[in-house]
Amino acid sequence: MTAPTTTAAPATSGQLATFRLDGDLYGVEVEHVQEVLRSQQLTRVPLAPTAVAGLINLRGQVVTAIELRERLGRPPRPEGTDAVVIVVRLHGEAVSLLVDSIADVVDVDANDFEAPPDTLEGQARDLIRGAYKLDGQLLLALDVQKAVSA
Amino acid sequence: MDGLDDIVEEFLVESHENLDQLDADLVALEKEPNSRERLSSIFRTIHTIKGTSGFLAFNRLEEVTHVGENMLSRLRDGELALTPHRTSVLLQMVDVVRALLTTIEASGGEGGVDVSAAVSAISAAMENGDGPAAEAPAAEAPAAAPVAEVAAPVAAAEKAPAKKAPAKRASRAKAAPAPAPAAPVEEPVAAPAAELPADLPVEPALPAVAEEHPVSEPAVADHPEGEVASPDAAAGSGRRAVADSTIRVDVDLLDELMLLVGELVLTRNQIVQYVGRSNDTDLLRASQRLNLIASELQEGVMKTRMQPIDHIWSKLPRVVRDLGLQLKKSIRLEMEGRETELDKTLLEAVKDPLTHLVRNGVDHGIESPEERKAAGKPAEGVLTLRARHESGQVVVEVADDGAGIDPVKLGAKAVQRGLLTQDALGRMSPADILQLIFLPGFSTAAAVTNVSGRGVGMDVVKTNIESIGGTIEVESDAGKGTVCRLRIPLTLAIVPALTVECATDRYAIPQISLQELVSLDAEKAVNAVEEVGGAQVYRLRGELLPLVRLTDVLGITSERHDGHVVIAVLRSEGRRFGLVVDRVINTEEIVVKAVGGQLKSIGLYSGATVLGDGTVALILDVQALARRALRTESLDRQESRASVGQSTAAETERQRMLLASIGGGRRVAIPLDTVTRLEQVRTDSVEKVGNREVVQYRGAILPIVRLDRHLGAYGETDHEVLEVIVYSDHGRSVAIVVEEILDIVDGEAAVRSDIEDMGLLGSAVLGDRVTELLDVRAAILAADPAFYSSPTTPAGVSDSLLEV
After folding, report:
1. Residue B428 shares a structural domain with residue B354
2. Which domain holds residue B567?
3. Tell me: the pLDDT tens digits for B28-47?
4. Contact B593, B610 (CB under 8 A)
5. Which residue of B lies nearest to A91 if distances are taken between CA atoms?
6. Which among B556, B599, B617 has the least Cβ separation from residue A64?
7. Quick check: A48 and B616 CB within 8 A?
8. Are B211 and B114 in the same domain?
9. Domain boundary residue among B471, B489, B507?
10. Confidence (pTM)
11. How large is the ipTM?
């Protein structure tokens, strides 16, 4: 996504549920988040896109799990560490994102918003709406919609 | 409502609903007399009832609604103004209609309900809406009104003899003499009243309704709403009224219920699985009850969504007639099994494909009368629709007795259109060629007319049927006709499925596609699974079955290294293939869950489900699997058919076999060396010990195993004499009952498979027929569970003896 489209997804104030992934801090709009779960048993789906980590059983509902590391072009999660599952609800359908760990819910201010840094490359750039400049840290706003359309 | 036919019943339910609405509408109308919308709605309701009652020959109902309609139409058009009195008579009409409906419901006929009063009142009000003369009695002295109204028509009848239909009603009770003298009201109403002279009397058969009715009338004039219940009450003679016994339910609500039941079934599966591991008998008992109740609930909820297939069939005679006329063909449509029920959603989904198939049958299947005569067939073609339940599915067939499809022409067309090569065509069986009509390339009109066969949009039909988890296949007998067979699941939400394991993951295969399971141990697998031009095949009862390894299709690595081969024999689009999996887990009812778009696009999974232990399993889309895997392999397998004969010689081993039939056309081979004697036993000498059958034989008690029951065949049971094969060992004997001893042959155990059916070791081709190899040990144990447990069990009854 290039500059014009970035402005189309305007900076918003509000609350972001944040999580960590490969050392970076990301956030998704709180209203999209349905729940957060400890690591779940995954049923792999042969022939599925690589970002599809598998299917999980969410109280009888079958939910696709997207490996966000793969989606953002990051290296795989180190052996022995469990992913945390963030279940998001989009258009009535539940999808889950696998992340490293969950962090706080953060109030963000539109004034702190900036377009994705130019250094952000390719695949990941499409999925990041922009960055909020927090104290001492950047919070990358994830475009959930795009992230789950693997 | 046994006495009423469906149409009447539907009419009653609908009318009762409409009347309730009408009451409310009329009262509301009084408050806003100028609402044309409300008037129109009321008018429509009455009009509908009138139309239907005329159609159903409820003449009095028609009469009363007819005058009501007249008045309403004039009110609607502004010719009349709505006065309280007019509202009252309209409400009175509603009550009369209600009383009539109640009588119809109770007796199937209109009985003795008196409509003349209402008719005359309405007519009077129409002529003289504000006329105080007419209104006075009704409004001010309600008790007097009925008398006046009732009297009027009688007086009129005396004056003017019935003009219309007196004969019809002559059989009814004779007119009771009207007690009251004609009231002033009679003048304006004389004309309409003359039409119904004989209706006034009370029919003795139905005193309740008739008596109650006049009483209600005065009240109606003043308190219309309060009167609503009373006619219904009059009908309440023990059974529920039609309107009370049915209820309209939002389909969404049913869907939701179905979903919940699905969840319940899942949870039930989990609980049953956990309980299976425990030893708590109380818990076990409770879980069994839960199991039972959940199944019944599931069935019940499914039933609420079931509708007979006749709902969609009923439109087809018209389609056939019109199309036949247009094409100048004479066609008779026959229907079998029209009461077969299936899920409403599925019914909707099947409607278009079915119509399409029927049109196709008329258009392309059945020939013109001239051609038919030339072919020695009756000029009238027959299109037959059949529906039936078959092993948890609904099978719907559209059969015609037309020219059939010529595989040669069809194949040539396919080659010409570049859908496959001449070479490939040469290797296809006629049955396979027929399925080509489902290829998208055949969906143009040109292809169809040229090929004398089907094809218009057959690919669309197929896609539609498959989208609801069904299958379609076509069979054709050149010159005799074509059959299109749809197999549709009973319901979409819950399907019986086989769960299999492959590379530690579990997958579900809908039972609808599953034919049988074959399990080969490593030793057998080496010989039984052969390679033909790089493709693996297995000989299933002499037929070559192309094998598809699930691991290969899914691009994963099998975890099974012991050489065992487990084959699920699947059927798709009229073709069979064997899916090789690591192991079979079990069969269970699974609840189909949709998968996200990312997975749909893979095209191999029709959904996912949650298994008993809570893990998610993917549901394999057998059609897609076949299409993907067989595209190349199907070409190879035909050519290998020719080579069957040669390769068998190597593993030939000979054994003397006793051949016996067990009924249902099944033949069983029993190794001769396990047979000690053949006997005949009179059926009436069979006695019972507990639930086992025994017979006295040479001073000993001989336990009996009836092979047909043991193997699940259905032999005739009314033989006088039973053919018995006696097997003895160390002083113990059992009698194996067969239908007929056929022969003793030298068995070539080469062409055999290992269908793991209960009680069988496998099957072989003996004397050109498929013959099942009896698991003698299992058969004996069925008759005498202690047979082998005797301490003297000899080495003689070893496995080697029993293994054929």
Report:
1. yes
2. 494-647
3. 777 777 777 777 778 888 88
4. yes
5. B596
6. B599
7. no
8. yes
9. B489
10. 0.48
11. 0.85
